[in-house]
Known about the structure:
heterodimer, A: mainly beta, six-stranded mixed beta sheet, four-stranded antiparallel beta sheet, globular, B: mainly beta, three-stranded antiparallel beta sheet, 9 strands, 0% helix
Amino acid sequence: QVHLVQSGAEVQKPGASVKVSCKPSGYIFTTYAIHWVRQAPGQRLEWMGWINTGNGNTEYSQKFQGRVTITRDTSANTANMELRSLRSEDTSIYYCARGDHLDHWGQGTLVTVSS
Amino acid sequence: QTVLTQPPSASGTPGQRVTISCSGSSSNIGSNTVNWYQQLPGTAPKLLIYSNNQRPSVVPDRFSGSKSGTSASLAISGLQSEDEADYYCATWDDSLNGRYVFGTGTKVTVL
C-alpha cells in the first residue's frame, strides 16, 4: 500500500522559514515525482512545484519562484519543501502528492504564520 | 497566474446526474490530459479521474470524465450523499514550462 506521511504542524513568525517533509512508502521512492500543493483556509488548491526524485530536477510555480525550494534525500526516501520569507498569507495546509497524476496524497501539514 | 475555470457550485438530488465543467486554453487542456480530484470536507484530495477519462480501481463507475478541445467535464451519475465534496480539475500548462495548474473548484451539494 502506498502512503505518504508528512511532518507535523508548524507555527512560524512572519519573515521566518518553514520546512515540511514527506516520507512515502509502499513503492520505490525514485520512480515517481513528488509534487507540493497548498490550500489556504476556504480556498482552492494551489500547485507549488515538483521534484523528479530520480535526478533531483525541479520546477516551481512562478508565484513561488525564489521563495521555495524542493529537495529530496534518496538515502532517507524523503522529499522536503522549504518556504522562506513567510507572511500571513502563507497560512495554509501543505500537501505532498505522488507522480504525474498526483495519485496519492499526504495527510497535509498545517503551517500557521502569525506574530 | 493561469487557472482553469469551473462553476463555483453544482447540486442535485440523490440519484440525479450532475456535470461539472472545466474551461482552459490551448496551452493547457488543449495540449494535455486532464485529471480530476475529489476533496471531502476536512480531508486531503483524492484522485478521481486521470488522463481525461480513466478511473483508478477504487473509484466507482458512477464517476466519468471527458475532454473536448479546451474544455473537460466530470459527470456524477446516480448522485449519493457521500458525493458531497469539492471537485477540482487539473492539468499541465505548456506555456508555463512544465507547471501544473488546478481549477477554481466546484462545491457539489446533495439536496
